[in-house]
Write a structure and sequence with these properties.
single chain, alpha+beta, Ribosomal Protein S5, domain 2, 6-stranded mixed beta sheet, globular
Length: 552
């Protein structure tokens, strides 16, 4: 009994022998309290290259600084820009040959003291508010993009240009300091900041540059639409995304409504939700904003699973995920280091999701029943003309002309040998799906990341009779540029149709020509509609049988 009770007691509750108490008291009398700093070494900046930035979010850090600088000194710079007849302009130039990125703006600029303060990591200054409140963005983004960068800046009215040269590896590993250079022959009406990043850590492909333009246009849509800001990427103006047309209710009113007064975790939430007339997975979802700057949104909006369904961040491929949209302003909430996600505290996210679920329930019910005007109807000639007009530039370009007139093919034996070696090189992780189309035909779909210069698609017979491999090159510019899940799904479906058509033509003992493959594929393209018709017929027959049975 005593042993069990002793085990339940805290050690302080058990009587201590006098000798132990004396030793403990003496030890406490000899304790010395001191303090030390929690220091971060300079090598930490070399780790910034491993942050989970995307190129568009890294570049946005510089635009945040430019736009916030104007907000901080609007009473001065607004008048200056008005007299010059220009808005705030941010120009981003990527020199692929030099492996260099330059970000320039015509905001108020910095003095030497401002520049020195701006180069201190995680030391917010008096200007560190709004979009630039953490005192990290410029430093972390520049170090992520390249290993060397410099800042050239001139504050309006100062007549001085200051340049700071940052060598990330030199500072991190060799104790190098930052030299500051003065040029005092500039006019007092000059005002600018240029940030030049060299020795880039990453290659920027052309398809990535299109994504950069798309994201930046969406992130700064408020500034761009108001005319307060212009952004240029390689001399091409970045535009805000088009406004999508809202659907209308039975009275002809737009299905769009403002959020009521809402406070979550002591923070105000505002915005609106609506139903799109024409949807798509890339169009649906909520765009999350803070300080009128998009944190997460088009083309990869926030899609709470309790509303949009699905098993991933894109939501299910249904009418709710395609049509329900909105903008949610979350000023005061924490954001991720790279400013690409809201960091909810406690139950904030669950509380917001529950509110939006209840607030959008009638819209979701409507969207589930809504079908586009052309469902089951052929496209009009005008619609097709519009689509082809948009394609005209692509197919009439000099690049297309060059490929059509200069491309040479290797001998057929070489192509077939390459296809076989590709099949032989497949590994189990490459396989993504297997379809038994018939008892004699199995389709194996694989995804490889070989090279952007390798063929986009390889269709080849496998070692086993009746097995056909569909090998997709994930790094090919065409496949890599497809963003929406709907487009990827249709792309892969067409690849599989091609494989089945080629296989079937070869079994019919006729030449495998483009005409014969297209003719057989024509029947395959009708399969989906026939499936739907057969299912509907079976349902009708089942209904008739039930009625007869009930009436007997």
């Amino acid at each position: 009994m005593w042993k069990g009770r002793e085990a339940d007691l805290d050690s302080s509750q058990i009587a201590q022998p006098p000798q132990i108490l004396l030793e403990r008291d003496c030890a406490m009398q000899h304790q010395v309290v001191d303090e030390t700093d929690f220091a971060v070494g300079p090598q930490s900046i070399s780790a910034y290259s491993r942050l989970s930035y995307t190129m568009w979010h890294a570049l946005a850090e510089f635009i945040d600084n430019s736009t916030q600088s104007r907000r901080n000194y609007g009473s001065i710079i607004d008048d200056v820009l008005a007299q010059e007849g220009t808005p705030l302009v941010v120009e981003i130039t990527h020199n692929r040959t030099k492996r260099e990125i330059t970000i320039s703006d015509n905001s108020i600029g910095m003095t030497k003291d401002d520049l020195v303060e701006a180069l201190r990591i995680a030391h917010p200054t008096k200007d560190s508010t709004g979009r630039s409140k953490y005192g990290l963005g410029m430093k972390t983004a520049a170090c992520w993009i390249g290993s060397k960068w410099r800042v050239v800046t001139c504050e309006w009215g100062s007549g001085e240009e200051w340049t700071a040269e940052i060598d990330v590896e030199g500072i991190a590993h060799h104790g190098k300091r930052i030299p500051l250079t003065l040029r005092d022959d500039v006019g007092t009406d000059e005002h600018y900041t240029h940030i030049v990043v060299t020795d880039l850590h990453r290659n920027i492909q052309k398809r990535t540059e299109e994504t950069i333009r798309s994201y930046l246009g969406s992130m700064y849509r408020y500034d761009l639409e108001s005319g307060r800001l212009k952004i240029f990427y390689n001399n091409e103006e970045v535009k805000a995304p088009d406004h999508y047309e809202m659907d209308t209710d039975s009275e002809g009113k737009p299905m769009r409504r403002e959020l009521p007064d809402l406070c979550i975790g002591g923070k105000q939430v505002a915005g609106w939700v609506g139903v799109l007339r024409k949807g798509g997975r890339k169009c649906g979802g909520f765009s999350l904003f803070q300080n009128e700057r998009q944190i997460q949104g088009f083309p990869h909006a926030w899609k709470p699973r309790n509303i949009f369904g699905g098993i991933d961040d894109e939501g299910a491929n249904n009418l709710v995920a395609q049509r329900i949209t909105g903008v949610i302003d979350l000023d005061g909430f924490r954001v991720s280091h790279t400013k690409d996600a809201i960091l909810f505290d406690g139950d904030e996210e669950e509380e917001l999701e529950k509110f939006l679920f209840d607030f959008t329930k009638d819209y979701c019910d409507y969207a589930r029943k809504r079908r586009g005007a052309r469902a089951g109807q052929p496209w009009s000639k005008d619609k097709v003309r519009d689509l082809l007009s948009a394609m005209k530039t692509e197919f009439s370009s000099n690049e297309m002309r060059d490929v059509v007139t200069t491309t040479m093919l290797p001998p057929l034996s070489t192509i077939l040998a390459n296809n076989k070696s590709q099949v032989d090189a497949l590994t189990e992780p490459d396989q993504v799906a297997t379809f038994d189309v018939t008892s004699e035909l199995r389709i194996v779909v694989s995804l490889q990341e070989r090279s952007e210069y390798e063929p986009h698609l390889t269709i080849a017979a496998g070692a086993d009779a009746g097995t056909v491999h569909v090998i997709i090159n994930g790094l090919h510019p065409y496949y890599a540029s497809i963003e929406s899940s709907d487009a990827v799904e249709e792309c892969i479906r067409q690849y599989i149709y091609d494989a089945i058509a080629e296989y079937r033509v070869s079994k019919l003992q006729c030449p495998v020509t483009p005409e014969s493959v297209k003719r057989l594929k024509n029947d395959l393209l009708r399969v989906q509609v026939v499936q739907i018709e057969n299912a509907a017929a079976a349902l009708r027959e089942g209904g008739i049988e039930t009625k007869v049975t009930n009436g007997s």
